[in-house]
Amino acid sequence: MSVKAVTHLNFRGDARAALTFYQSVFGGAVAVVTYKDAGNVQDASEADQVMWGQVSADSGLCVMAYDVPSRMPWHQGENAFFVSVRGDGAEEITAYWEKLSDGATVLQPLAAAQWAPLYGMLRDRFGVTWVLDVVNEYNAS
Prior knowledge:
Layout: E1 3-11, H1 15-26, E2 29-34, E3 50-56, E4 62-67, E5 81-87, H2 90-100, E6 105-113, E7 116-123, E8 129-134
Parallel strand pairs: 1-4, 5-8
Antiparallel strand pairs: 1-5, 2-3, 3-4, 6-7, 7-8
């Protein structure tokens, strides 16, 4: 099994432009899933915004990004990133989730999602937001 931590940047409508810019800097490939692609449109004006995106470079550099929906709080520079822990297997990710959950606020329960076999988000007792998921074929890096 393998697991890695990836910087996950948060934007409000600028994720696609940021990913394109980072690709121009670091090279590699950009992958984007919009809210519409994932069947998770809550506000029609945000359907084409990035629900999940990443730049994955041959050098090994990987950065993820998404557009925070307008229904959620976001202030540039205040909640600018998550720590994303990505693994190959549910057992490993679930074990990390259970330990990180101690004293945490669960923002999205760990469960299957349309874009990942297993996905969850929590804010730990220190105020750090963690996203844990099992990688599938289109979001592997």
